[in-house]
Amino acid sequence: MTNETHPEIENTMQFTKIGIALKDWPSLSESERLSTFNSMSEEEAQDFFDSLDSNYQADLFEQFDRDLKRRWANDLAYDDLADILQLLDYEQVEETLSLLAKHARVEVMALMAYAEDVAGGLMNSNYIRLRANMMVEEAIRYIRTQTLSNVETIYYTYVIDTAQKLVGVVSLRELFGARDGQKISELMTTGDDLIAIPDNMDQEEIGRVFSRFEQVVLPVVDEEFRMKGIITIDDIIKAVEEETTEDMQKIAAVESLDAPYLEVGFFEMTRKRLGWLVILFIGQMLTATAMTHFEAAIAHTVALVTFIPLIISSGGNSGAQASTLVIRALALGEVKNSDSLRVFLRELGSGLFMGFILGIFGFMRIYFWPHANEVYGVNFASISLIVGCSIICIVMWGTLVGSMLPFLLKKLRFDPATASTPFVATICDVTGIIIYFSIAHALL
Predict the structure, then answer these.
(1) Residue 131, SS3 per DSSP
(2) What pTM did the predictor assign?
(3) Residues with Cβ within 8 Å of residue 264, at least 6 apart in sequence
(4) Average pLDDT, whole number, for the chain?
């Protein structure tokens, strides 16, 4: 019997340890985090650091001493280092850049010039470059030497000309499957089959390109089709996750958090939540204002007040449904601003149909209620008709508001996610009261 541990078991134990550390990380102080990180082996530390959110990476990196900073700055991929530096203050950035080799410093500064949510800010400039006139054997030898450097991936190589323009792409599989004596120009993908991402493309659109063409890595080019870098699928998954988190927060009527939940200070968290709550609270106050204009109808038939929650919730719920569906469709590129009329007609029909079904339930709930004339008064038949008609109108109106508001916000260059569920619900509450009592005033 031996004491040797199987490699797979060692890997499992390592990732379990990393998982436990990640779970406890938010609750640790800065000194405890540094101590925990320093207790890891070099391999564990690398895997753990890669698993951290960029905000946590920046916080940890800031605590490193000069020698540790130098080692990590030179070991990290250029795009990952650029992401970290964008979260640090000026002095920290200058110190870190001074620790890099001249070539690495130029590459990282070039990446930092881009916004972090566009292709230029997500790309990695370490990729394998080939020339079209290279022979296959020569290219394979060159790739073998390049794997010793910090290249992002070797599965795809990029053929560029003397002006640094992208002219083709060759996969490693195509290279090893080629005949002796073939040139790279005979193997490379060119023309319309060559997929490239503009360096100013937004990360949401990049995610759609990856999904549409089912790629794991894509080249990034500038306006003149000069090769700038590559984006891998893991880079864009992380970016899309951050974008989705931001949209989820906006849908909940919360300003985007720039750090993990437990890292945001009490007053900062309150500020980001209170702003929208105040706006929504003021909006809800309009509901009381609207009701004062219908005091006569309320005094005439007090039973109308009983069904106010039913009425306004129907509009808010239908509006929230439509808003969520349209926001998601816009985010995925399934619909565009030019499709707003089609969406309007589609939601008009859906809202009318759903409102009619719910309206029938509302009518029957009152009209056929046992002893309805005693519970709701002699006007119970009119009240049942008012509630039924109001539900039809309010559900249809809520559906239209929820579906059209994202289009309006996008046209005004705002994030459609701002058409959050609470925002749509507040609009539907105020207008629902007006619709309800207007119908009541007309029928009574």
Answers:
(1) coil
(2) 0.60
(3) 257, 258, 272
(4) 82
What is the bridge-based pairing of β-strands 156-160 and 166-171? antiparallel
Alpha carbon distance 134, 141 (integer Å): 11
Contact between residue 419 and residue 405 where contact means Cβ atoms under 8 Å apart: yes
Bridge partners for 157 per DSSP: 170
Instruction: Report which of 438, 436, 439, 440 is spatially closest to residue 312, judged by C-alpha positions.
Output: 436
Closest CA to 236 of 200, 211, 199, 260: 211
Q: Can you give the pLDDT at residue 12?
A: 45
Distance between CA atoms of residues 348 and 339, nearest Å = 14
The CA-based angle 400-401-407, given to 5 degrees, is: 95
Three-point CA angle 338, 333, 215, nearest 5°: 145
Q: 3-state DSSP call for residue 158?
A: strand
User: Looking at residues 327-350, what average pLDDT do you find?
Assistant: 88
Query: In which element (H, E) is residue 170 found?
Result: strand 166-171
- Range 170-207 burial, b when 16+ CB lie within 10 A, else e: bebebbeebeeeebbbebbeeeeebebbbbebebbebb
Instruction: State which amino acid sits at residue 236.
Output: I
